[in-house]
């Protein structure tokens, strides 16, 4: 698709056609949204769709998950004129951190970390990632946010936003507990869940 072309009618999710299928094998995600980020109108419409369910909600900070969640998260933070917090893969921050082990979409055991001086009790945070497949990564990020302050659930997570939240056990767990937004129209959700 032409990276300058904008369709005459822009239905929700029109920009999903900009994404490219995996050609490198099972060690990679099945779909690559990075071309969507190169399309000015596609990116703007994606961000607007992600934020639409949160219109009027108080959001104090946006947190993006390493690494592709940094793109959408920082863009959303700039649109909202809020601060941006990077939730990192362990070993990248040179300050005091909290860590959380998790299993990613490929079944690999990993550890995520966040600095300890950015979140205060009661802060309302919008967590952003590119994709929620099994939910392990997002759940670890939620746990890191909610652990800040040293008592159970001191922070109020405003919600979760991702291009796609798959209908997996982990995806359902997140959607049952938190306000969520994603860009996949209901008629297309089964295709994304089956990675088609």
TrEMBL record:
One GO cellular component term noted in the UniProt record for this chain: cytoplasm
Listed InterPro entries: Adenine_PRTase, PRTase-like, PRTase_dom
Entry's transmembrane regions: none
Catalytic activity as recorded in UniProt: AMP + diphosphate = 5-phospho-alpha-D-ribose 1-diphosphate + adenine
Any one of the GO BP annotations: purine ribonucleoside salvage
Organism: Oreotrochilus melanogaster
Protein family per UniProt: Belongs to the purine/pyrimidine phosphoribosyltransferase family.
Enzyme Commission (EC) number: 2.4.2.7
Keyword annotations of the record: Cytoplasm, Glycosyltransferase, Purine salvage, Transferase
Positions of the Phosphoribosyltransferase domain: 57-155
Quaternary structure, from the entry: Homodimer.
Any one GO molecular function term: adenine phosphoribosyltransferase activity
Annotated pathway: Purine metabolism; AMP biosynthesis via salvage pathway; AMP from adenine: step 1/1
Official protein name in the record: adenine phosphoribosyltransferase
Pfam families attached to this UniProt entry: Pribosyltran
Lineage, highest ranks first: Eukaryota, Metazoa, Chordata, Craniata, Vertebrata
Keyword Nucleotide-binding: no
Subcellular location: Cytoplasm
